[in-house]
Amino acid sequence: MAIDTSNSEPISIIPGDTVKWTRSLQDFPASAGWALSYELLNSQHRYQIAAVAAGDAHRVVISAQATDGYAPGSYDWRARVTNADEVYTVGTGRLTVAPSFGTAGDVRSHARRTLDAIEAVLEGRATSATAEYEINGRRLKYIPLNELHAMRSKYQREVAAEQGKSGPRGVSGRIMVRFGQ
């Protein structure tokens, strides 16, 4: 089965997948000698991608081998056309490179990691009645339980939103219907 290609830049890339799109730029046709290139950039990585002419359009294909080497994270991208001494930026945006299943690491979102940490603290605090203590002049004071519960509720809502659910109880916003005879 062939995968349809897009007429716009992707919003995410999965390492190890081939990525394709075609850009038609009326003012900068490939047939007139304009070359389109992309640059992906974040604080740690930079990737350059060149398009090839496809009639008047510009065709971009990033091989599975190339995307397999992309580091996960958010990237700003810039599209530029060149023809002899002329260079113009024709687009900018942001995309995400997903974590690869082949690499080790924590792939949970910030909200999920924070919620898990808060719940671990609450579980640990359930066996301790100490709110603060002092040893050799150093004082340690724990976050009050009511603040922890408020933070927990906030992150439960964020995690539920990430999962497409409306609240911490996991009530989905979808309505399921079945028609039968």
Verbal overview:
With 181 residues, the chain is an alpha+beta fold. It has helices at residues 64-68, 110-125, 145-162, and strands spanning 12-13, 19-23, 35-41, 46-50, 52-54, 57-62, 73-83, 86-97, 132-135, 138-141. The chain is elongated, with a radius of gyration of 25 Å. The protein has a five-stranded mixed beta sheet with strand order 1-8-7-3-4, with no helix packed on it. The protein folds into two domains: 12-97, Sandwich (Immunoglobulin-like), CATH 2.60.40; 110-162, no CATH class.
Secondary-structure topology with pairs:
Layout: E1 12-13, E2 19-23, E3 35-41, E4 46-50, E5 52-54, E6 57-62, H1 64-68, E7 73-83, E8 86-97, H2 110-125, E9 132-135, E10 138-141, H3 145-162
Parallel strand pairs: 1-8
Antiparallel strand pairs: 2-6, 3-4, 3-7, 5-6, 7-8, 9-10
Indicate the percent of residues in helices: 10-25%
- Report strand %: 25-35%
Q: Please identify which CATH superfamily of the largest domain we are dealing with.
A: Immunoglobulins
Describe the largest sheet: 5 strands, mixed
- Structural class, from helix and strand content? alpha+beta
CATH architecture of the largest domain: Sandwich
Q: What is the third-level CATH name, the topology of the largest domain?
A: Immunoglobulin-like
Q: Mind telling me the CATH class of the largest domain?
A: Mainly Beta
What low-confidence regions span 5 or more consecutive residues with pLDDT below 50? 167-171
- Give the helices and strands as they follow along the chain: EEEEEEHEEHEEH
**Domains (count):** 2
Instruction: Describe the strand arrangement of the main beta sheet, using strand numbers.
Output: 1-8-7-3-4
Radius of gyration: 25 Å
- General shape: elongated
| Average pLDDT score | 84
